[in-house]
Specification:
CATH architecture of the largest domain: 2-Layer Sandwich
Bound molecules: L-homoserine
Structural class: alpha/beta
Largest sheet: 11 strands, mixed
Number of helices: 14
Shape: elongated
Number of strands: 17
Number of domains: 3
Strand content: 25-35%
Distance between the termini: 59 Å
Helix content: 25-40%
Radius of gyration: 27 Å
């Protein structure tokens, strides 16, 4: 050691506790509070200073919260955020979360949030505020609950080139599709079961219609491609129209139906979309069952990576929140700052109809000579290349007239027409070309019904 080096202080002063404010005390907040209260020594040792829970903002302070001392509860969130070093926001929704986070940042607090909707809608405002104030804004829990995916994408892969992210990031819809596939349940019954198990809300719209997954897709796309992508730039289609037939046809064709959040880099820019997709049964995402989540990342140097785990629930999500909290505490103690928003690439965000993917189209046609050639001609005319065509057993459709109120004395014999069911899988095609193809097929004389159009991913 050089002669001029100061001797180490034999009894360094204990670091002052860092004050933690919690906004929200639902399943995640309660669990975060419990861990802060029950494991103070471990957390202090890992963070470098005690983490002192100074208050929990809730709407109703009279509701008892299991394991949470009532004296910590307050309905004055606005003042709580001004007297904390670290603010954890697990209340969800846009307001008052946005105002409270901005106030916390202005008052110098680092913020940990699980609020995917807010980040996907207003992320840049929050990141800029945090940057200006020199504080951390961390959000591991906002995407796929317990799964470490934000940190790996923005830190571990910072030296690589991510090309595509495919995520099962909504546990409720994964559970619903899995029950449809394995138990033969209809969508409504499977959703009801998800509600009974506490996966789905009383109003399941955010999950079933893909809003929750779209917010996560926006966050993942922004991180992976260093480009701001907001939720309104994510093409979104939920699982509401998925039928047991779709699920069964997926199985017969060697696929599993999954609701995917997709973020990809193309030659033209960045695309983000959420929709049900047929995933080959041998793809790692096909093995993600029940309410589990997984994110499959493709990077140029690293190759394929898969992150798997529990994407929701109080305890799993609290793990991600507490991890961020400990990191933010460490940053504060050394006077440093965690990673900032990285949006330097600022790539064009592509419109939904620019997406290029493979499709499976199922349709019913009159079983007549030349019909297959006509159908193939429509695809060719739109530049959509066919990979496979499968014709299933002929069905017989009845074209009986609507029954009259008074039955006719002598009923006409029922008119029937033999039908064929076609399952066409295409090579990669632009969404716009496929949409035009489907519209043209729908107008073709022998086509009786376009039964479904599903994208094929992970091939
Ligand atoms: N409702 C979400 C899900 C969890 O079912 O995965 C919160 O994003």
């Amino acid at each position: 050691m050089p002669a001029h080096a100061p001797a180490p202080d034999p009894s360094p002063a204990a670091p002052r506790p860092l004050r933690v404010a919690l906004l929200g005390c639902g399943v995640v907040g309660t669990q975060v509070a419990r861990v802060l209260l029950e494991h103070p020594d471990d957390l202090a040792a890992r963070a470098g200073a005690p983490l002192e829970l100074v208050g929990i903002a809730v709407r109703d302070t009279t509701t008892p919260r299991d394991g949470v001392p009532p004296e910590l509860l307050t309905d004055d969130a606005a003042s709580l955020v001004t007297r904390a070093d670290l603010v954890v926001e697990v209340m969800g929704g846009i307001e008052p979360a946005r105002t409270l986070i901005l106030s916390a940042i202005e008052h110098g607090a680092s913020v940990v949030t699980a609020n995917k909707a807010l980040l996907a809608e207003q992320g840049p405002v929050l990141f800029e505020a945090a940057d200006a104030a020199g504080v951390d804004l961390s959000f591991e829990a906002a995407v796929a609950g317990a799964i470490p995916i934000v940190r790996p994408v923005r830190e571990s892969l910072a030296g690589d080139h991510v090309t595509r992210v495919l995520g099962i990031v909504n546990g409720t819809t994964n559970y619903v599709l899995d029950e449809m596939a394995t138990q033969g349940l209809g969508l409504d019954k499977a959703v009801q079961q998800a509600q009974e198990l506490g996966y789905a809300e009383a109003d399941p719209t955010a999950d079933v219609d893909g809003f929750d997954a779209a917010a996560k897709a926006a966050i993942l796309a922004s991180l992976a491609f260093h480009t701001r992508v907001s939720i309104d730039q994510v093409a979104r289609e939920g699982i509401r129209s998925i039928t047991t037939d779709d699920v069964e046809w997926a199985r017969r064709s060697g696929y599993v139906l999954k609701l995917l959040a997709i973020a990809e880099r193309t030659a033209e820019g960045v695309a983000a979309r959420v929709h049900p997709a047929l995933v080959p049964t041998d793809h790692p995402l096909a093995a993600v069952r029940g309410a589990f989540n997984a994110v499959f990342v493709e990077a140029e140097a690293a190759g394929p990576l898969m992150f798997y785990g529990q994407g929701a629930g109080g305890r799993p999500t609290s793990s991600a929140v507490l991890g961020d909290l400990v990191s933010a505490a460490r940053d504060r103690l050394v006077g440093g700052k965690g990673p900032r928003e990285s949006a330097y690439a600022s790539l064009p965000v592509l419109a939904a109809d620019a997406a290029v993917t493979r499709y499976q189209v199922r349709l019913e046609v009159a079983d007549r000579t030349g019909v297959l050639a006509q159908v193939a001609g429509v695809l060719a005319d739109h530049g959509v290349s066919i990979d496979t065509v499968r014709q299933s057993e002929a069905l017989t459709a009845s074209f009986e007239a609507e029954p009259a109120s008074e039955p006719a004395a002598e009923a006409e014999p029922e008119e029937t027409e033999p039908l064929a069911r076609l399952v066409i899988t295409t090579h990669a095609a632009r969404e716009a070309s496929l949409a035009a193809t489907v519209a043209a097929l729908d107008g073709l004389d022998p086509v009786r019904q376009i039964t479904s159009v599903l994208r094929v991913e992970g091939v």
